[in-house]
Amino acid sequence: MGLRILVIEDEAEIADFILRGLREEGYVAEHAAEGNAAWTLMESSKWDLILLDWWLPGPDGLQLLHRLREKDLDTPVLFLTARDAVSDKVRGLDAGADDYVCKPFTFAELLARVRALTRRPRRGADTLLSFDDVQLDIMTQRAERAGHALMLTGKEYALLAFFMRHPREVLSRTRIYEQVWGERFDKMSNSLEVHVMELRRVLEAHGPRLIHTMRGRGYLLGTRAEELS
User: Fold this and answer.
1) CB under 8 Å to 100, separation ≥6 — which residues?
2) Cβ partners under 8 Å of residue 205, min gap 6
């Protein structure tokens, strides 16, 4: 899917549950456990969705949401909180939240709300990634090459989206793994290589190679001429 989601949650078990589920669905998910670190990530990067806990060390979720909206940032925000009183829901929504989920919740419900929020058009949002004859629409989750639809798994989609956000750039295995898998790179695992091989197979069914191995350095999305330059 390639959509970037920031999960702000201080309870480690809940955060791990959400992050694992989102990554299995192909989302690129990052985590912050306290308010100040969360604000740094909110302010410094572009996100397609923020999942925000209310109770946090440092600035709480409501304060972070006020800051975000005061800066005129329209990133969709989904509150995740145990505060289930109607008055609390009203405060959260009035502060600029787009949706509100009370704990405990099922991942199926959370995922449905994530899909609903990320389908909504955003002001000035650029949902189409393109490189050479490959196009990827992160809102409709459709990828194609030379007019042919590409059948990709969630992880292959996220991997392609990451490459297309960094065209003509040498990406180390460590960087790819940590950004797409959201985990520390394991040199003993061949998971990245397997997924790159499968992604190449799908892409090369409709054109020449675009994902090149840079020996000892990582991978690069580019044309053959660019790889050799």
Assistant:
1) 78, 79, 81, 89, 92, 93
2) 148
- If we measure between CA atoms, which residue out of 89, 101, 86, 44 comes closest to residue 62? 89
How many Cβ atoms from other residues are within 10 Å of residue 113's Cβ?
Answer: 19
Final residue before a domain boundary, out of 60, 91, 119: 119
- Mean pLDDT computed over 2-22: 91
Per-residue pLDDT tens over the stretch 69-91: 888 778 899 998 887 777 777 88
Question: What pLDDT shows up at residue 38?
Answer: 95
Kindly state whether residues 11 and 109 are assigned to the same domain.
yes
Over the Cα atoms of the chain, what is R_g? Answer: 19
Whether residue 35 is predicted with pLDDT greater than 90 in this model: the reply is yes
The C-alpha atoms of residue 111 and residue 210 are separated, in whole angstroms, by 32
* Among candidate residues 119, 146, 172, the one where a domain is terminated: 119
Tokens at residue 62, please?
A: 């409501």
Q: Return the structure tokens found at 144.
A: 């194609």
d(CA 41, CA 31): 9
DSSP state of 171: B
Enter the tokens of residue 118: 């990320």
Are 91 and 142 in the same domain? Answer: no
C-alpha distance from residue 124 to each of 72, 139, 152, 175 (Å): 12, 13, 27, 28
Q: Has residue 219 got a pLDDT over 90? A: yes
Cβ neighbours around 153 below 10 Å, total: 13
